[in-house]
Amino acid sequence: MKTYTFHVNGMHCNACVVLTESELNDVPEVSKAKSSLVNHSVQVTGEFGDKEPEHIARDLSEVLKPHGYALSLEKQNHLAKWSDFKLAFPIAIGFIALFIMLQKIGIVNLVTASRVSYGTAFVIGLIASVSTCMAVVGGLVLSMSANFAKEGDKVRPQLLFHIGRLASFFVLGGLIGMLGAVVQFGPAGTFFLNITIALVLLILGINLLDIFPFAKKFQPTIPGFIGKQVHGLKNINHTLTPLLVGVATFFLPCGFTQSMQLYTLTTGNFVTGALIMGAFAIGTLPVLALLSFSSLGIHKKAQSGVFFKTAGLVVIFFGIFNAMNALAAVGIISPLFSF
């Protein structure tokens, strides 16, 4: 039994920690795997016979390759790829301008000066579904699909998973809203939560840009053991397992989900909270459905650095906009837009 330390290429967020550990722990030769987002590394303990470390890294990389990761003995230099911004900036600015224009002329009510609307939650869900933070959910869906496909059951598990996911986000979102009513946030508490949401979105957006590796250390997450337990459910081959896994994704370490959960807490209303989280879940549905009914991995669907940088700029816009709305709501600054 020996312990090896490998560098992980392709790691972006805490969801990647859960996914890499879960996949490596499923390898027969591995007794324990422990990933680190700070160092972009993984410690692997196991019995590998006479294999050299380079050989072990190659074998384990094959396990992680479908999810967009690779192991190496030496740390590779981070490449910011600033050239991607030549396209990312104009695309993001065009999207933001369209977003504001549609609201301004009243075609769609996506943003208001005082709250996150259902349309905003839906758009954030769309961005989350193709970001690296959703890699753990995509990997979970693909792994579960493979387990049931071995027995010839392909469609029913997928449907149960998505039904469970949508239902849990709606019901649990409503319960979080009700909890907000019990807590009774005052103006100061609401301001603090709104600023927290803005900071979470800013950190998520900066990480999507993939130019400041140190920012990944500040990305918020729930305790890792919860994500590991949820990811482990995929190996339980029971009829209702897909439904349970779908429900459990509400608790996975995705910063986008947590930012929406924080906002839902400020609504103080079951219906509003349920609709906010439901709209977010519906936003993630198209990509996750495509994943679950296909054999393609999540990273194969969005390899373009331009795409991630564009999404990052849009998320940063949401973060700045929410921060300004929070400051305007307490009278520190004047509203920038009259919606």
Q: Can you tell me the overall shape? A: globular
The fraction of residues assigned to DSSP E strands is 5-15%
Order of helices and strands: EHEEHEHHHHHHHHHHH
- Order the strands across the largest sheet as they lie in space: 2-3-1-4
Relative helix content: 55-70%
Structural class of the helix and strand makeup? Answer: alpha+beta
Weakly predicted, low-confidence segments: 107-114, 295-303
What's the number of helices?
13
Query: Over the alpha carbons, how many angstroms does the gyration radius reach?
Result: 21 Å
Output mean pLDDT: 76
End-to-end separation: 64 Å
Give the total of beta strands.
4
Biggest sheet record: 4 strands, antiparallel
Question: Please, how many domains?
Answer: 2
Written account of the structure:
The protein has about 350 residues and is α+β, with helices and mostly antiparallel strands. The protein has 13 helices and four strands. A hairpin with a 4-residue loop joins strand 2 and strand 3. Helix 1 (about 15-25) crosses helix 8, helix 4 runs parallel beside helix 11 and helix 6 (about 155-185) crosses helix 10 (about 255-265). The longest helix is centred in the middle third of the chain and has 29 residues, at about 155-185. Residues about 105-115 and about 295-305 have low confidence and may be disordered.
